Amino acid sequence: MAVFLSDTERTRILNGLEANDTLLCRFHMALHKRVYKRVATKGLLGPDATVAWYYPAAEYLSDAAMLYTLGPEEKLANWLRTVTLDIARTPAYDWVGPAFRYHSEPLTGHLETAHLCWALSAVYDLARDVFSEPEQAEIRQALTGKGIELCRRWIDKNTHLANWRGILTSGVIVAAAVLGAAGDPDETLLDQYVLEWKRCALAFQPDGSYGESLQYGNYLAFALMIAYESLCRKYPEKAALLDIGAYGKGIRWIASSLFYAKPLADNGSSFWGIEPRARAANFNDSAALFRPSGDLLLHLAARSDSEEEKRLARGLFATYYEPVPNQGPHELATFGMNNDWGFLTLPLLTHETKSASPQEADLPLTTSFSNGHAFMRDAWNGRTIVAINGGGDGLYGPGHLHGDLNSFILIHNRERLLVDPGHSCYRNLIHGLESSTQTHNTCTFLIEQETLGLQEDKAKTTMLEQKSVLPRRLLVKNVPGPPVDRGNRRLLVERDEVVSVIGSEVGSAYGIPIQKFTRLWLMAGSNVLFVVDRIEATQPVTTAWNWLVNNRDGQAQVDSLSTSLTVRRNEAGMKLFHLGQGKIGHPVYGYVHDAYHVEPNQYGEGKPGSGLLYRFTEAAPAATRTVVHAIALDDSIVLDRWQLQQAENAFTLFNGQKQWTLIVQDEAANHLSLISGHGRRWDVVPQDTMYSLIRV
Fold this sequence. Notes:
Its main location: other. By secondary structure, the protein is α+β, with helices and mostly antiparallel strands.
């Protein structure tokens, strides 16, 4: 019995293929196509590769090994033997990773090292008979002397808790488990790193969300998953010590973060094809084209102790993988950058689990999570989504943050109208800029202002932005320190009938002189959103409100007036009214990225102007202000019917059929009233340090 494939799983797969089981045949055929495309290149990388060899090694070799063990073929065996031995014989210096990784002596491992452990372990486990005895000894030596040793050095040298520690720990466990199952057990080593696995799982928030991003939460969970799967069949007593619920609980956060799947147009390029592609809330370093790894979803569906988590995970796989088994690219799949299904999908598909959609699981339409992410929907599969990075708890695994607190993504009719920029290659000069507060849908402050009046000159004055580089959460004597406070506080997350309200306070994320930046989002039905900001400072500051419009495919039609912004994208439209003292300028040509790539100027990286950054900037500084933005959402063709009427502290959006009025009852306290066209009223009322939504 192999570590990654039990006898029962093998039998079920082969019987299912013989019986023409639709799902097993679909993914087996896709696996065969994927593997033999690479076999035809006679090496690891084909002519269309955009990455260095160590990035896709884990997915390419594990895919091939699983296909081989289910149906050995000489051509595939020769490819596996050649590529695997080439990697095994590569010097330790190259196992460390690319040139930008530290290569000083004594050599330490990095993410790429763990991936090579996964790659060789899968082949050694599933396709060992491809190699002679001396060749098997070479692979064992590479795994112990390069893989395990280099990974252990990194773990011993570093004490912070985040995704890296989990990936390196997984490299050790997977290699040790495979070697042990093959007759070379090191129980002491496995036991030591099973304990390390348990520490790594503490990087997740208590509700299973993750403090870095969706992308890195998936990456860490994937690493812990593959370590668990390397243990559960041969070392069930060790696997029983691991709590996959630490990340399994996060399936609710993931389900809430996913928006929809549809084709991705790309300004003349056919790279992304015509298949539907998943979109998600890409706060911090994450991709807008995000779906959880397929193997991870099926792992949760098979292994979770929670029936709801099992069904949700299986439902997400059915939605985002079953219709598109051949969707690529596959070269950054295990690296957590462009997620895909992998070699564990076939065995895990043999574990039957019922599926459920978020609606069937009765997930709330308005909700928030410990990491600060919050969501408002008019309905599951409805017309409008507001995704917010707002108030949260201390972060259990901080890192890869942007200055995006009180920023939000706005979706209507399956179009992202206001977007998060995402991120590109870390070695791009613009990465620092696309991570900064000024490129997100939140506020920045000018604390010095020259007499020059042009917008580009104002942007070069001293700008106050959020602090997004936080201290790491450190292990002290193997015990994690306290969570790291980002300076964001949850004020309110409530829904009553068609009204949802979310509020957060993030003033301390900016530091002196900002005392308060409270933002409240009030969503009424599918068409109306009010955003109310209360800003207080110890000295007068000039506030700039930043709005990043999605123009990634050149399809945004934007009209701007001095106090309003109208955006149309295909069938969706947004009309935003600024009701403060700010004046709009010509857009700054920003970036909106689809997916991260490890190299610059590759697929997924946005071009200048893919984001249109509009700023409403105050003409004069002030110490306090309450500013309302009223946003109407509708089909593009009828958007002009929406109008705004203002009477002192009352702001009404109406289109002849629907009407909603926001009244600022008490500016300093943020006491607000929301009144429908039928006269129903909801009040947002401050209570101690929080707020409440009360239907009057």
